[in-house]
Design a protein that fits this description.
Chain A is of the alpha/beta class. Chain A is built from 15 helices and 19 strands. Chain B has a seven-stranded mixed sheet. Classes of the chains: A alpha/beta, B alpha/beta. At the A-B interface, helix 2, helix 3, helix 5, helix 10 and helix 11 of A face helix 4, helix 6, helix 7 and helix 8 of B.
């Protein structure tokens, strides 16, 4: 029998029970809660007269609905959004769950806040009623998104009934070139495996190009595992992981730190571990990526053209491409760098961390947002990211270039607050989904890295960031 | 949870790959703090030509008569047919609630996204996986107005005089047939959870501070 994969190890550590049908009960160490997928779960607890099993396993923050304008210190204007955020506040107060409320400096996007606080630690199981929970797998943890019924289940039992996934190794060997980021790597992976390629799998990302990434970069890669169909994405623990975690508020200290690090250093796949599927990419082949369609797999390098459905053999797929081109108002054969955009969004749980803002500011510095751009938004992932960026003067770089500098939240990634696209508007976005109407009804989304988004903002159209 | 045993119903053919949960129920409806009332907004962007929101009466909105849900032949349909990777994207269980609130009891597709698939079982919605070739036959049966039978005890889908078997996890089948509450079942294992915690606290005390 071969060695264990990282996923096997994480699974085994958390296995409480397996019944005769192969359904396993898995213990959950950390449950992150936000306002959109939790109210019905809390209501369920109340109706059944149940209490949270382990209060301090939960950490809550409102992110999806919150306004990103400075006037939010005076409260939320939209009454429906306000009701949902108020419901989270009331539920957390009632049950005694720690919550960073909207105007707390620590508030931000749940997947930025967890790691930043050390609430996400290597070796944990981390769940949240949000598909981008895969982000936390960057720490060598088993992290995945759940629905509201499972949110209630975790609150009530600290466990989930799961069936073990198959394992996939995605190796990116070799190093990526200058100007090619974690976002480009993960978009290239999704382009390779397809949007359903990882369905039924837990993906481990490995190889030189992944190891070379900072924790921010690894989070970007794991964040989009779900866009390749996999509920969980993960990266083995190494010194980069341990250095990031050290000194975080919710992390262990003193003797427990040493004990924890000893366990964390075992969190990697054994050399002789076998995976159900292995996908290999060469880092040197990856170019800056731009999506052209309405699914993240519809992605091409910036120096190519919009693909032609007539060249697709699978008829259902070709029809999907035609629908996407019609929705996106694009012609097959158009060079990507001739596509002009109306709005630019730099933010989301994929790309709103300090390193993302630095990369975008590097491009924006000394330049101006092009005249055809109606709005260029920079939305930091948390109050602490915002504070750090301001300490580095990044806010001034953005504002001088003509970007708007906002308060933290999910913002225009899914447009549940006031930040959105109008029908027909085209956006260069650092978020994770280019689905129809994702950023506003009729809006057209192109997914790119922060540097590529900033480059589109200052040029008015997509451009290869390596050329400027 | 509502039980699922055998269901006979009209099928709605939604001939698309990668139907995502944003398409099933757009973000503005996620602001509701209830589990019910999402049916009128199912496939909202495809179903209506004019924008909608929680506080907009759907009867005042312009209908997209080309969309399959709006065609006379498929009114009252309770079985949804789709293509690959149904339910991809966001984890929002509202997608399942919108389908069930509309009256859908089962979705049949060649593949489903994992989180949607999982959420379905928690709400008495049966996701059935059948091969592409079978889907082609079911799509034509639906277009000819044939009803589809989904028989969970025998794990069979029947239409137009033919029958196809489908796979289902035995635990999930049991829960659907009996309409069982997952949480209650897990709490029967409370002692095992407490034993696990006591052991884990020995090796990983930092998780129990």
């Amino acid at each position: 029998m071969g060695g264990k994969t990282l996923y096997d190890k994480l699974w085994d550590i958390h296995l409480v029970d397996t019944d005769e049908n192969g359904a396993s009960l898995i213990y959950i160490d950390r449950h992150l809660v936000h306002e959109v997928t939790s109210p019905q779960a809390f209501e369920g607890l109340r109706m059944a007269n149940r209490l949270p099993w382990k209060l301090n396993a939960n950490l809550a923050v409102a992110d999806h609905n919150v306004p990103t304008t400075a006037d939010r210190v005076n409260g939320i204007k939209d009454p429906i959004s306000k009701a949902q955020v108020d419901a989270l506040d009331a539920n957390c107060d009632e049950f005694g769950i720690t919550e960073f409320k909207m105007n707390d400096l620590r508030q931000g996007i749940v997947h930025v806040v967890g790691p930043e606080q050390g609430a996400t630690l290597p070796g944990m199981t981390v769940v949240c009623g949000d598909s981008h929970t895969a982000t936390h797998g960057a720490f060598g943890s088993l992290a995945f998104g759940i629905g509201t019924s499972e949110v209630e289940h975790v609150l009530a039992t600290q466990c989930l009934v799961q069936k073990k996934s198959k394992s996939m190794l995605v190796r990116v060997d070799g190093n990526v070139g200058a100007g090619v980021t974690a976002k480009d790597i993960v978009l290239a992976i999704i382009g390779e495996i397809g949007t359903a390629g990882g369905t039924g799998y837990a993906i481990e990302f490995a190889g030189e190009a992944i190891e070379a990434l900072s924790m921010e970069g690894r989070m970007t890669v794991c964040n989009m595992a779900i866009e390749g169909g996999a509920r969980a994405g993960m990266v083995a623990v190494d010194q980069t992981t341990i250095d990031y975690v050290k000194g975080r508020p919710y992390g262990p200290t003193d003797e427990q730190w040493e004990q924890a690090v000893a366990e964390w250093r075992t969190l990697h796949s054994d050399a002789d571990a076998e995976f159900d599927k292995v996908v290999e990419l060469n880092g040197a082949d990856i170019q800056p990526q731009v999506t052209w369609g309405t699914s993240p797999e519809m992605v091409v390098p910036v120096d190519t053209v919009v693909p032609n459905p007539d060249e697709e053999a699978d008829s259902v797929k070709a029809e999907g491409m035609r629908k996407a081109l019609a929705y996106m108002d694009l012609q097959a054969g158009t060079p990507i760098d001739q596509i002009s955009v109306d709005k630019v969004f730099i933010g989301s749980c994929t790309n709103s961390r300090i390193e993302d803002l630095r990369a975008a500011a590097d491009v924006a510095k000394g330049r101006k947002v092009a005249d055809n751009i109606k709005l260029a938004l920079v939305v930091p992932g948390s109050g602490l990211v915002k504070q750090q960026a301001e300490a580095e003067g990044l806010d001034k770089v953005f504002v001088e270039a003509g970007f708007e500098w906002r308060e933290p939240g999910c913002s225009m990634c899914l447009a549940m607050n006031a930040d959105r696209l109008e029908p027909g508007e085209r956006c260069a976005s650092t978020s994770n989904r280019n689905f129809e109407s994702r950023q506003g009804k009729g809006g057209r989304t192109h997914l790119v890295s922060p540097a590529m988004a900033a480059a589109a903002a200052v040029n008015g159209h997509f451009v290869d960031v390596r050329s400027i | 949870m509502e039980k699922f045993v055998t269901h006979i119903g009209k099928a709605i053919p939604l001939n698309r790959n990668n139907v995502d949960t944003d398409a099933i129920i757009p973000k503005q409806y996620l602001k509701s703090i209830k589990r019910t009332g999402f049916g009128p907004f199912l496939f909202d962007d495809w179903r209506y030509n004019t924008p909608g929101d929680l506080d907009i009466d759907v009867s005042t909105r312009e209908i997209n008569s080309e969309f399959v849900l709006n065609q006379d032949a498929y009114q009252g349909g309770s079985v949804l047919l789709a293509r690959e990777n149904f339910g991809c994207g966001s984890s929002r269980e509202h997608a399942v609630w919108a389908l069930t609130d509309y009256g859908i009891r089962a979705v049949i597709a060649p593949t489903f996204a994992d989180i949607f698939f999982n959420n379905s079982f928690k709400n008495g919605l049966l996701p059935v996986i059948l091969a592409d070739e079978v889907m082609d036959e079911l799509f034509s049966a639906a277009e000819q107005g044939e009803e589809i039978t989904i028989d969970l005890p025998t794990q069979e889908v029947r239409a137009a005089g033919k029958a196809w078997e489908f796979e289902i996890d035995p635990f999930r089948k049991h829960c659907l047939l009996e309409g069982l509450d997952d949480i209650g079942l897990t709490l029967q294992k409370a002692d095992k959870i407490k034993t696990y915690e006591a052991q884990r606290k020995q090796t990983a005390p930092w998780l129990f501070n």
